[in-house]
Design goal:
eight-stranded antiparallel beta sheet; 6 helices; 8 strands; 25% strand; globular
């Protein structure tokens, strides 16, 4: 009798493995049209801004060393001053999904600053201490970290704070002349795959951010020639 039981165990295990494999295969087939629709929509949106699919090895260097497979739907300008992508970040038993944009603010060398909407997971953890600004409304909605309080306060003037309030879901890190803006996709409202709203938000942030970098930041934290 015990031999029959022992024989049944591998059969049951095999059945479970096969069922799991079928479920994964079925899910992948269902997801494929959605992923393709998103890819086509992102490509069309990026093409309007002159971004192409040929990205450079340093386009997302601000993230540190990451496997290339964590990036999908990646596009960049030919001069690599702007790059965007979907970014999948394994985190223990969970996986975080972001859409990211990197850009260069020419002539600036700013100490590290991070601005993240409260209640959301940042793309980088740890780092410098949290600082408070003079805007209660902004402090209630965003958490600011910086190695240099003065530079963060200068960067986050009323115009820049209003941009972040308007862009809602966009967070960013900046160090030197490079900016990493990102949307935690878990925080997005429901939408169709062919509506890449996070990329639209990131481009809106890009248009406003570079234009709003205060003149005092550009002069007091200018990059050396």
């Amino acid at each position: 009798m015990s031999g029959v039981v022992l024989l049944a165990i591998p059969i049951v295990v095999s059945a479970v493995v096969i069922a799991a494999g079928i479920a994964i295969f079925t899910s992948a087939r269902r997801q494929r049209p959605l992923l393709l629709a998103r890819q086509q929509a992102v490509t069309a949106l990026c093409a309007q801004r002159g971004l192409v699919t040929e990205i450079g090895p340093d386009d997302f260097a601000i993230l540190g060393p990451i496997p290339r497979g964590w990036l999908t739907n990646a596009h960049a300008l030919p001069d690599h001053s702007v790059a965007v992508a979907d970014f999948t970040q394994p985190a223990g038993n969970r996986t975080a999904f972001f859409s990211i944009l990197t850009c260069t603010v020419a002539g600036v060398n700013l100490p590290f600053v991070q601005v993240v909407r409260r209640g959301l997971t940042a793309i980088t953890v740890g780092g410098p201490p949290t600082i408070e600004l003079e805007s209660i409304d902004f402090d209630n909605q965003f958490m600011v970290k910086s190695k240099d309080r003065r530079s963060a306060i200068m960067l986050l003037d009323p115009g820049m704070m209003q941009l972040l309030l308007d862009c809602r879901l966009v967070n960013f890190d900046m160090v030197g002349d490079r900016v990493l803006a990102y949307v935690n996709r878990a925080s997005e409202p429901a939408h169709q795959p062919a509506e890449p709203i996070e990329f639209e938000l990131l481009f809106r942030f890009l248009d406003g951010f570079v234009a709003r970098v205060p003149a005092m930041v550009r002069s007091d934290y200018a990059a050396e020639p």
